[in-house]
Structure formats: structure tokens, C-alpha cells
Amino acid sequence: MDSLAAPQDRLVEQLLSPRTQAQRRLKDIDKQYVSFATLPNQVHRKSVKKGFDFTLMVAGESGLGKSTLVHSLFLTDLYKDRKLLSAEERISQTVEILKHTVDIEEKGVKLKLTIVDTPGFGDAVNNTECWKPITDYVDQQFEQYFRDESGLNRKNIQDNRVHCCLYFISPFGHGLRPVDVGFMKALHEKVNIVPLIAKADCLVPSEIRKLKERIREEIDKFGIHVYQFPECDSDEDEDFKQQDRELKESAPFAVIGSNTVVEAKGQRVRGRLYPWGIVEVENQAHCDFVKLRNMLIRTHMHDLKDVTCDVHYENYRAHIRQM
Amino acid sequence: MDSLAAPQDRLVEQLLSPRTQAQRRLKDIDKQYVSFATLPNQVHRKSVKKGFDFTLMVAGESGLGKSTLVHSLFLTDLYKDRKLLSAEERISQTVEILKHTVDIEEKGVKLKLTIVDTPGFGDAVNNTECWKPITDYVDQQFEQYFRDESGLNRKNIQDNRVHCCLYFISPFGHGLRPVDVGFMKALHEKVNIVPLIAKADCLVPSEIRKLKERIREEIDKFGIHVYQFPECDSDEDEDFKQQDRELKESAPFAVIGSNTVVEAKGQRVRGRLYPWGIVEVENQAHCDFVKLRNMLIRTHMHDLKDVTCDVHYENYRAHIRQM
């Protein structure tokens, strides 16, 4: 099992994308060559200095543990001051967009993490077009970036484009609900959607297997394009390939979050203490939390940004030009 | 813990309402009196011969375990042939009313149990007035009964009035959702609503405590009238009074259902087998299932019918007369 401080310890190593890492391995043999082999190191130093940014959106109906999962992923409480709305307030509430930004630093590598939250989504009695404020938000970020990119002072463009959207599916839904289909179809051409089965500690393993299968089938049937993990390079080692296969087979990840540390078998772990046992968030036999964290932070953060930039943003530009 | 066959074993003893039972205790001292002390026995014999009926409605959004709970309560699979709808079918689906009737017999006492199910409730993107088909159904049963009661052949009136509605609240809701408030306010003057926290095996004890409190507060604040357990007779024994107090304090019951029998500590119990432990449906440290079953079958079935007859149906009649 991974230790509690794990995600931040790994950031340095992993934020730099697999390619940069591979290039760093060259270091040891640098001395035998002229000097251009140090170019990756220069890129590395520069990117460390500049810092990284990443914008993650979380969506799904209230109560599916969105904020708890974000907390568990980044070990940062973005929602300290959050007040839960009463049913009364929620009746009149519309979907809002909330942005929280935190600067995380580990071993000198800085990550500016922005979480875009969408409270109120799917909570109303009538949820027709409740994803409209969200698609509008995504479009506005593209628009802003497009304006900045076309302007003069291009050096310090603030990239607020949404790089990934974790979409929380209820574990009780017997598959996708109409509101899930509506949301994903409205967003799938604009943002990398990573669907998650939320609060998976209420499903026994066979139920998780069945639900995953059903969701995969329905995503297929409705022509929804969720984020596709890129093909694994053929020259990667067998271990990495195996991990990659497991990652792809586990989608949609069934996750459990927790902000409390409990004692299980003498070890202190993030978990949930039920009268019948302890759910360990980072135990791979209990859920796919570690897989999601690895994917998001260690292995695919760069690719998520690349796809946002090269596919979704380019689509937006093509669309603008047609108008 | 209660054995698996428990609910049916108890029906004979308990279906006859607390009053009839008390009167049966008179049996032993019958011989000292004239003869009218046997009247209760005559009533008893007659009612056994005639059989009992009970109509239970279950409502709440899909996936909250309504059919599983009904199965667990009556150990009768009413839904053998049920086919789950796909997201596609559910998009076009409206709320329907389905009626299942089973005849259960134990120790010669017959119970005709009717379950009224409301698939599709709350599943649409737009759930405005989604409780309308349900209120209409309840009204139609009153209307039918009223017509039969005013007619000539009153001996064999079929009573299809809904005696109790188990309303399933999502455990993830941070309290009541707007659709819950809408449903309960539309139905509370027509039927005995017993709110339940569904699938409580995804909440740790402190979360259950908080959610119960919040639901009680909100029910109060919105002026929703759920079924009130009657005052305990002052001449009941201390044990019974204690049980009654616990029953009232536990509302809304947090329940877990299961149709699978698993092995826990060498015993075969109804439960759910998680990688981190076994949830036992009938273990009172795990959930309030036994409390609900006792209330519904052993202690309050008669009162639920009385309140339906004396309060809800009389309200309906008063309402009709005004028109």
C-alpha cells in the first residue's frame, strides 16, 4: 500500500511527463557526448522554474463525494469554508461554477492546481439543460485563451482551460441516468471526461464488475467520447505495459474517498470505519482510487493537457473560424 | 439475531394487533366467567378464516434497493421477471404504477400482501410533478372504495387502499432533496409515509446519526406529516415500552436489504459480502432493518390500516362531500 504522503512525493518525478523522465536517464552518459544531450535538462530546469498548472473539473450530483475525493487526491482541503445547503436553499438554487486554486509544492516543483466545482448540478426537480452553465464555462475559457493568444503580450498567458473533468456517476444507478448521458454528450467534445463510479464502498465486487460493464456499454451505445488513455509505447518495459493494461481495463474507476485517518491492522490509513470493517481508500483490493491518482498525477497529467490543447482547443478554433 | 424464517413465524402471533393478543391471554381464565370473554376468540377465529390484507407502496428513485428490501422483508420475490431498463429506455420512460400481489401463509394465517411499486419515479432529467401518477393512484383507490362502500354488495369489498408508503431517501443526499420534499408534501395527507434511509451500508455510524437528525429537522421545517407511531399504552410492560422508545428514536430507519445468504462467523445470514467485512441485514448494530420489520409486521400493521381508514380515508370523504 502507498503511504499517506505519496502523491506529493511523486509529483517531482512524475509531473514531467514520461518522455522528459526518459530523457533524464541520459544524465549518466552525458559526459561521452558533445552537449546537445543536455537540452532535455535545460527544458527540465526551465519547466521546474516556471511551474506547472492543471485545471480539474469535478461534476456530478450532490452527495457523491466530489470534494472528499479531491481532498483525498491532493491532500489539500479546498473546501474548508463550505456550507452545505439545506433542501430549502437547494430548491431555489441553480448550478453555479466555483473555482478554487491552490499552490502545491513538493521538492521544489510547483503545481498550481485549480479545481472547478459545479455545485447544484442535477439537484433540482427539473434538471433540463442543467449542464448549460458548465458548457458555457468551458467555452468561455477557450474564448479567453483564444483572445490572449491572438493578442500581443503572449508571454504570460494564463491558461484556464479545463484539462480534465471527473464525472461522478451514482453507484446506485443501474448504469447511466438520463442526466449523466445529457451531461457527457454536452461536454465530450470540449473536455476530457473521466467517468468515475462514486462511493464504490456500497457495492460488492460483483456489483462493481456488472456496473462497469454496463456503463462501458452505454457510453458506447450513446456515442459518448470519454478520455481515451493513449497507446502505450512499444518500447516501454513489461511492468509499465502491464500497469497500463490494468489501467485501461479498470475504467470507469470505482472510487472511494475519505478525509479521516483510521487504524487498520496497526497501520494508520485513510479509510472509513464501518461496524463490519474498515474500507481502505488506498487498498487496491477495495477500490480504484490509487489507479485514478496514478493516472491523474503520475502518468497522464501531461497527456490530458496535450489532448485539451491539440484536440479540444483546436476544435474550438476550427469552429470559430467557420462562423 | 433473528433467524431467517422469522418474519413468517411471527405473523400469526402478531398480525392480530396488540389488542387482540392481549385478549387472547384471557383464555386461561375463561372458565371462571359466563361466556362473553370468548368473544375475542370468536373475532380471532373469524379473522383468521377471513385472512388479512395489506397494501404497501414503495417509492423513491431507482437503485435505492426498493425491491431488494421488499424481498428481505417478506422473503418473497415479487420481482422475478423484472427487467432493468437501460438509460435509453429510461429517458423516454414516465412514472408507472405496478401492482404485485402475493398470498403468504404461516401457521394457517393468510396474508394477502400487495406491493405497489412506482418505477421511474425521480429518474427523468425533468421530474416536475413526477409524483402526480402516484397521488392519482392513491386517490383512485379511495374513490373505488367509496363507490363500493356506497353500493349494495358490501360484503366482499376489495380494499385496495394504500396502507403504508415506504419512502426511500438516498443516503448521499445531505438531507432531503427537492424531489423528496415534493413527493412527501403531495402524499402526506393521503397515505402513511414511513421515510427510510436507503442503502445505509454506505454510511458510517456518525454519518447515519447526522443524516437522521437532518432529515427529522427538515421534515419538521417543511411541515411534512409522516406516519406517527401511536403512544404506547401506559399499562404495557417495561420491555415493550423500552422497545417502543427505541423505535421512535430510530426514525427515519436506516435500512439495508439483501437477497443473498452469506456465511458470517459460522452462521448463515442475509448479508452483503464486502472485501472489508460482512454487512448483516438483521444485525441491529449494522442497521435498523429488524426495527422496520417489527414495526411493519409485528406491531404496527393494524395501526397503519386503522389510520388509513380513520384519518386518510375520512379526509377523502370529507373532501368529496365539500365538492
From TrEMBL, chains A, B:
GO CC aspect terms: plasma membrane; synaptic vesicle
Taxonomic superkingdom: Eukaryota
UniProt site positions, description: Important for dimerization: 172
Septin-type G domain location: 50-323
Keyword Cytoplasm: yes
Pfam families listed in its UniProt record: Septin (PF00735)
Record GO biological process: cell division; regulation of exocytosis
Keywords: Cell cycle, Cell division, Cytoplasm, GTP-binding, Nucleotide-binding
GO molecular function: GTP binding; identical protein binding
Principal subcellular localisation of the protein: cytoplasm
Cellular localisation: Cytoplasm
Record family assignment: Belongs to the TRAFAC class TrmE-Era-EngA-EngB-Septin-like GTPase superfamily. Septin GTPase family.
PANTHER family in the record: SEPTIN
Name this polypeptide is given: Septin 5
Biological source species: Nomascus leucogenys (Northern white-cheeked gibbon)
Lineage of the species this protein comes from: Eukaryota, Metazoa, Chordata, Craniata, Vertebrata
